[in-house]
Specification:
five-stranded antiparallel beta sheet
């Protein structure tokens, strides 16, 4: 009995000094039996509120993650294995990411009677991971744009017939922005723009010359708000 009390005291001292949430859960009732001070730091709740209502931890799990997390926790009371990353919602509305890892404690009969779990705040790690994914998406988009422009440039060096140049350019740009109607417009100086050609899907029946009379066509940006916006902002603009 003395050894058991000393063991419990060592457990409490260890739990009170670690930065992760350290808690024990009854495998049958899913009630929290004990939790350390880190619970308050990470969740914004109080230990007393959790011990008074030992299943209230369910309420801080983000609504979109709650069903899956509780299902995995239910499985863990039988398998002893729990390793999940999910969101929690603090009393002030802030959302944080945690990683919870659990392992079993068995009784004399070998049955799982307790789950001992740790919960670590991984919010900064998750944000860093998301930023990496975003950067990769930006890099892939830039690579696709560069590849499309490379194809267009290659066409310009191989065939300077206007018909072929416009065909290749419009098809290359379609890989970046799928369209049903596209038109190549280049600045001509001041508010004037030169429309060199257009392409429709489905394509019109081919005629000779392919670009019907009227191309090239001079447009005045001041009379067309969308074109004026493109010239002023000097960047891609999408309008529905």
């Amino acid at each position: 009995m003395r050894e058991h009390r000393e063991s419990e005291e060592r457990y409490r001292q260890m739990a009170s000094h670690i930065q992760e949430i350290f808690w024990r859960l009854d495998a049958e009732s899913k009630h929290v039996l004990e939790v350390n001070e880190a619970y308050e730091t990470i969740t914004g709740g109080t230990r007393r509120s959790l011990l008074d209502n030992p299943t209230s931890y369910e309420e801080i799990i983000h609504p979109e993650d709650r069903v899956q997390v509780l299902a995995r926790l239910n499985d863990a009371t039988r398998t002893g294995k729990f390793d999940q990353r999910f969101r929690i919602t603090l009393p002030n509305g802030e959302v944080r990411w945690v990683r919870v890892h659990g392992f079993p404690m068995r009784n004399a009969a070998g049955k799982i009677s307790r789950l001992v779990c740790t919960a670590q705040d991984i919010t900064e790690q998750k944000q860093a991971e998301d930023q990496v994914v975003k950067n990769l998406e930006i890099a892939e988009s830039a690579r696709a744009e560069a590849d499309a422009l490379r194809k267009a440039t290659l066409s310009l060096t191989q065939d300077l017939h206007m018909d072929s140049v416009m065909e290749a350019l419009l098809r290359s740009l379609e890989e970046l922005v799928p369209d049903t109607l596209a038109c190549v417009i280049v600045p001509e100086g001041g508010p004037h723009l030169l429309a060199l050609g257009e392409r429709e899907i489905p394509e019109r029946q081919k005629v000779s010359p392919k670009y019907h009379p009227g191309h090239p066509l001079t447009l005045i940006a001041d009379e067309r708000p969308f074109l004026k916006r493109v010239l002023e902002e000097q960047k891609s603009v999408f309008e529905v």
